[in-house]
Amino acid sequence: MIPGIQSEAPMSTILYLTQIQFEFGAVRLLASECERVGIRRPLVVTDAGVRAAGVLQKALDALADLPVTVFDQTPPNPTEASVRAAHEVWQASGCDGLIAVGGGSSIDLAKGLAIMATHPGPLTTYATIEGGSPKITPQAAPLIAVPTTAGTGSEVARGAIVIVDDGRKLGFHSWNLMPKAAILDPELTLGLPPMLTAATGMDAIAHCMETFMSAAFNPPADGIALDGLERAWAHIERATKDGSDREARLNMMSASMQGAMAFQKGLGAVHSLSHSLGGVNPKLHHGTLNAMFLPAVVAFNAEAESMQKDRRLARMAHAMGLGSQGDIPAAIKDMNARLGLPTGLAALGVQREWFDKVITGAMADHCHKTNPRVATPEQYRALLEASM
């Protein structure tokens, strides 16, 4: 037993990680990473916006000596139908590996395809809440991830979120889905529009804050998350206001990576609600929803015994440069306003008649039980109301 740790304390499996290439211009390493991983006929999964911005071409230039096929129809929230469409391209081209170039949606779609291309049956079979994680085998197609936003950190995470055919927004988690390589090139984010910079940046902040608040025992994750929060909080406004600020872009990409490295520990009510609400209305941006829910959930978590015992809120406040832990919810609201994000869910068009469905989804979400206070349906309703 570790000294000072009671035997009944929650413990975590701690596993790090994948190979990460992190520097300006790192996209040039794509071909050598394909060779290392054993990918000879890659399918590049991306979206129309990444292609139009010229970012896809940088990846294709680095792959000039390989027979490459491109699927560029990733929707803002990947669906099982879009995974099937990519699978048809995969089969037609005889691909043997995946390269995701884009934000979390492209990377998550590629992870869904890594399952579908190598496992029988519908994707729902492999969803975490359906007990499907152990069914995802090492046969999953190899994946290299090249993020073009700084938010989800999916390039270093074992999970993916996909809207399945029955309309639920479900998580898929397995270490066999971990990308074989992550190529983090901040240069690819220099042209990211301000609002997408803000929304994805708040996603990274939510990951760092929620995983740090989780009561699960994982000291490495706590340290990584707290450092990521400090970096993101100090640089998100700079990156949003001046997209060419290389230092800010570097630190936001690092914070995004760190949030995902850490959230193997577990997330919480922010993500339970945003996953569910994103399933009710797939047009809503995940990072923006996280930004809307964070203030209310931090206030809700302040009453958790683990928050006080470990001074978690006080430590977050220090990382954010705030005077006290009670300042955190207001500081997040102020940051959202300075970044130009919406004032609340109502400004996004969220309707109260959706609440019952959102609450049902949140209660079933894989992040529900790792919040430091496990919310009741009534408490979720109050959190929704407070976030309107």
From TrEMBL:
It comes from Aquabacterium commune. Belongs to the iron-containing alcohol dehydrogenase family. InterPro entries: ADH_Fe/GldA (IPR001670), ADH_Fe_C (IPR056798), ADH_Fe_CS (IPR018211), Alcohol_dehydrogenase_Fe (IPR039697). CDD domains: Fe-ADH-like (cd14861). Keywords: NAD, Oxidoreductase. This is 4-hydroxybutyrate dehydrogenase. Residues 197-388 form the Fe-containing alcohol dehydrogenase-like C-terminal domain. Residues 18-186 form the Alcohol dehydrogenase iron-type/glycerol dehydrogenase GldA domain. GO terms for molecular function: alcohol dehydrogenase (NAD+) activity; metal ion binding. PANTHER family: ALCOHOL DEHYDROGENASE, ALCOHOL DEHYDROGENASE 4. Its cofactor is Fe cation.
